Amino acid sequence: MMRLLTTLLLAACTACGGPSQDGNAFTFDEAGMAYRIEFRTENTVRILARPAGSPLVTRRLVVDSLPAAPVEIRRESTEYGYAFRTPQLWVEFDRARGLFSFRDARTGALLLEETARSLRPDTVGGEACYAVTQRFAGTDDEALYGLGQYQTGALNYKRDTVLLLQANKDIVNPYLVSTRGFGLLWDNYSASEFRDGGDAFEFTSEVGDAVDYWFVYGDDPAGCVRGYRALTGAASMLPKWAFGFWQSRERYKTFDELTGVVSEYRRRHIPIDVIVQDWEYWGEKPRWNALLWDSVRFPNPGAAIARLHEEYGVRLLVSVWPGFGPETAVYRDLEAAGALFDERTWAGYKVFDAYDPAARDIVWNHFRTGLFDTGVDGWWMDATEPSFREGFTQRKQEARTKSAGKTHLGAFHRYLNTYSLVWTGDLYGRLRAAAPERRPLLFTRSAFAGQQRYGTAVWSGDIIASWETMKRQLAAGVNLAASGFPYWTFDTGGFYVTDNGGIYPRGLADPAYKELYARWFQFGAFLPIFRAHGTNVPREVWQFGDERSVWYRNQTKYIDLRYRLTPYVYSTAYDVAANGSSFIAAAGMAFPEDRAIAATDDMYLFGPALLVRPVFEPMPAGARTQPVATLLPRHDGAWWYDFFTGGAFRGGERVTRTCGLTELPVYARGGSIVPMGAVKESVMAGPDRELEIRIYTGADARFTLYDDAGDGYGYEQGEYARCTLGWSEADASLHISAREGSYPGMAQEQTLRIRVFRPGAEPAEQTVRYTGEPLECKFQSTENR
Question: Taking every annotated instance into account, which residue ranges of this chain make up the domain Glycoside hydrolase family 31 TIM barrel (predicted)?
Answer without folding.
Answer: 236-571
